[in-house]
Amino acid sequence: MAVVSQSAINQLMSLMDQVDEPLKRTFQNVHQGYKVETLERFLKARDGNVARAHKMLLDCLHWRLENGIDDILSKPIVPTNFYRGVRESQLIGVSGYTREGLPVFAIGVGLSSFDKASVQYYVQSHIQINEYRDRVILPAATKKNGRYIGKCVKILDMSGLKLSALNQIKLLTAISTVDDLNYPEKTITYYIVNVPYVFSACWKVVKPLLQERTKLKVHVLQGCGRDELLKIMDYSALPEFCRREGSRASRRGGNTTVDCFSLDHPFHQQLYNYMKMQSGICEPTRPLKHGSVRVEMPLADPKKAEFCKALATEWKKFQNQDDLSWLHDIKISD
Questions:
Q1: What does the pLDDT look like over 120-135, one tens digit per residue?
Q2: Which is nearest to 319 in space by CA: 206, 198, 204?
Q3: Per-residue pLDDT tens over the stretch 212-225
Q4: Which residue range(s) make up the domain with 11?
Q5: Is residue 290 part of a domain?
């Protein structure tokens, strides 16, 4: 991973001091008072190259202005029952914090269906969670711990992953590209748990295509990952899918706690109430039509396109095997 020098930070700082006022205003929403740490993130994302980091940051700020990202937290997806459908099909939540105070984001990769709304609603929801993380959750964690906390931990649950997930690769690529270009270096570690065989096989093929910086962040854990994760967080911070080994690990919800993916979970309740407060609206008494926020999704870089192509190719191999499985059944029955 690139080590960012103080000289590089100073150079980028000097360049950013020269941008015009609209860009400075949206930059404030990005750095939240921690300008040096933010410049360091963009420099790391561009291997310490000041010119490339400067371009990346300027592109990010223009993207924010052109798509109204500064105001996106005042545009809740309404009505609530429609938003509940988004939450039930785009599984993400905050299950707690590590012992170092980093928020733990749980993501249900395998069981997310993305079939309750249009692509734009899912992109809008993802960006709103990013912005809430950066403007509310991380500043609160920084204040509580008495030191700067600007990153999170993500736990990706592969339970229920099916070959049909290939149909969502375009949406997932768009979302990850938004993160790569506009929210770089916000995740310190990705833990992947409840891994089925199909993922393990594909991972061997696509892992070599990842940047070294990314590979160092990704840890594929055995089973539900409980024992490894308990080294960095308390049991109460574990997502539900990490608390039980075996077939029960993939089940959502439970009798004692609220599923962290659910709209009823405190994280989502606080997020949604925050957005309603920012928008100045109350819960409508009758159905309310509210269009999605149109966000321009940047094109993935060639390396990511290569990664996705390799993943799709490997995935289709398993799909073809699955399509021919009935022949195997006939042979067995004979």
A1: 999 999 999 999 999 9
A2: 198
A3: 888 899 999 999 99
A4: 6-67
A5: no
